[in-house]
Design goal:
Layout lengths: L4 H28 L5 H20 L3 H18 L7 H22 L7 H15 L8 H10 L3 E2 L2 E7 L11 H11 L1 E7 L17 E7 L2 E2 H5 L10 E7 L10 E3 L21
Antiparallel strand pairs: 1-5, 2-4, 2-6, 3-4, 3-7
């Protein structure tokens, strides 16, 4: 994937920030061996989430996909449904090493190695598929009740009114819609009211807004995560739908399929989370 000079500079910043995030993950995981406090786990999770989001933005799919499983495991740990055991911490430390190898290769414009990532992915998925006995403990139950994301039986509707600068912050709505389509039955209705006359169109500006629906039993966090890197000046309102509420209103509607060869959903280049 090639970028212009400006994007190359932004990519350089991503690599620098990823190195800092990996250092933060490593130090945090080492401290977990002595004290598994929730704030430390949250800090490790945020670092992994930042790397995954930036990798998705720049089409580093191998990095984004591998880090997704790491992030999922950390999310379970911070929600109290999986214990921070010595084996789990060791696996995550190995994962940090693998992510570092992948990011370093991408920074050097070399092929991203996949052998170690594939082996660890299998181990990560095995852990995620197994029930953790610690989840039944009173402390874990309290933690889970306190932090569990809200779930809507029918899905979620999203009023997405992006700032005019959306494209300039490396965000692509079609990639966001592709990710939403992976979560459930997805529909989008475009609002054209801000669209100027064709002679006044600026291709670098976003003039559209969207009413979106995703049907299915989903946690709000799953939907909100899609918009994590959208600029804070955008408006994103997410509301729960009950069963049968997912019929999209009449208007300019598009059902967006997920192309087999499309890049992973993008996160914006370090923009402030808005969801």
């Amino acid at each position: 994937m090639s970028f212009d000079a400006e994007m190359e500079e932004i990519l350089k910043v991503f690599f620098e920030e990823s190195a800092e995030c990996l250092d933060s993950m490593e130090s945090g995981l080492l401290s977990l061996e002595a004290n598994a406090d929730r704030e430390t786990i949250n800090r490790i999770f945020r670092a992994a989430h930042s790397i995954k989001g930036g990798a998705g933005t720049f089409g580093l799919l191998e990095v984004a996909e591998f880090t997704h499983d790491v992030e999922t495991l950390l999310d379970e740990m911070r929600n109290g449904v999986r214990a921070a055991t010595a084996d789990t911490v060791q696996l995550l430390l190995e994962a940090v090493d693998v992510i570092r190898q992948m990011v370093d290769a991408a920074a050097a414009k070399q092929p991203i190695p996949g052998t170690n990532a594939a082996a660890l992915t299998g181990r990560l998925k095995a852990i995620l598929a197994a029930e953790d006995p610690a989840a039944g403990s009173p402390a874990a139950a309290v933690a889970t009740a306190a932090t569990a994301p809200s779930v809507a039986a029918g899905g979620w509707s999203v009023d997405f009114r992006p700032d005019v600068t959306l494209f300039r912050t490396c965000n692509d709505p079609l990639r966001m819609f592709e990710q939403l389509d992976r979560l459930g039955r997805f529909r989008a209705r475009a609002d054209l009211s801000r669209l100027p006359p064709i002679g006044e169109l600026d291709p670098t500006s976003c003039h559209l807004s969207w009413q979106l629906t995703v049907e299915g039993r989903l946690a709000r966090d799953q939907v909100a995560e899609v918009f994590d890197w959208v600029d804070a000046n955008s408006i994103i309102e997410i509301q729960a739908m009950g069963p049968g509420d997912g019929t999209a209103p009449a208007g300019v509607e598009a059902v967006v399929p997920a192309p087999a060869d499309a890049p992973a959903p993008a996160a914006a280049c370090g923009a402030t989370a808005a969801a």
